[in-house]
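User: Batch of two.

Assistant: Item 1 of 2:
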Amino acid sequence: MFNTSKKNKKGRRSPLATVSLLAVALMTTGGAYALFSTSANADDSTNTTLAASSQSQVNEGQKLFASNCATCHGLSAQGTSEGPSLIGVGAASVDFQVGTGRMPLAAQGPQGEEKPAQFTDQQVDAMASYVASLGPGPSIPSSKLTDGAEGDAAEGAELFRINCAMCHNVAGAGGALTEGKYAPNLRDVSGKHIYEAMLTGPQNMPVFNDLNLTPDQKADVITYLKYVQDNKSPGGFGLGDLGPVAEGLFIWIFGLGAVVAMTVWLTAKTN
């Protein structure tokens, strides 16, 4: 009995061991909770900062809109007899129209003409953010789709000939339309504005949404236009890229005219 009692006494767990285990568990749990709380608070703080920054941009855009656009489009962008409603047109439409200087209009006419922009990029972004806050609409495209580096120029050329060349000319040189309207020259237009024009259909242009032309196909069209911009006519003088009619007229007048003149000269010299 003495040996059994001594053995049990030696195998008994010390009370300090239990207290130590509880302390370690509490410290681990507390540390994990503190770390999680700190991360959550940091995320909340970041989201709050971004939301405040976004709201500040919207407020600035609203002020600019009220000062420069509300006369035609209404104080709440609901539209008037002088201008359409902008609710639901999206940031892309504002970025195109204001970024290319078409808006505000200098004067009423068949269509808004491109001119130097009256606002800085930051102001354009602010107005675009304000209009986008009024209702869902097309957003400003990413630079990956608009820089002209990621697309297929051959595919873009085919898409452009099918969908755009009848107005803009196969080389993007532009052309006349009815009632004093015209398709603008695309030679010096940025890829972002070309994409936004396809996406929003400004003025006489049809809308090519993502069901008509996918984002990758729009990028292909931009790549083709960038190729045309960077590579001049391989045949020499391009005659303004006006197409076969202009080329045929040039040959008829100057080519045949030169032949007739040479014939007359030879005949006169012989006589």
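Item 2 of 2:
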Amino acid sequence: MGCIKSSQAKQDGESTRRGGRRIRKPKPWNHTEPITRTQLDQMREEFWDTAPYYGGSREIWDALRAAAEADDLRHARAIIDGAGIIVESADLTTCYDERGAKYELPNYVLSEPANLIRES
């Protein structure tokens, strides 16, 4: 008799090893006030520039950035697996490296807000 988690993982076609959790896009979200693409890009760049100073490995932060910016979820999953990142939340907002360091990603680096203003 297996545990529920491993049974579900097998049904989903995912591996049952650590970090084998399926990843998905984050749920829709809204910024506190409408923002432009330029403002969003600036917020993202600022986050990625400062994230390594909060702990963890620079290589893992770089892999998380590449996964967050990947064109599709399969590519993101390959990056996550290759870096040995353990996915705690399927939307990548909480991950760990193999040494147990925690990495938290804000929604704004993972997806666009619903109230993004399109610049003309």
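Confidence is low (pLDDT under 50) at residues 1-19.
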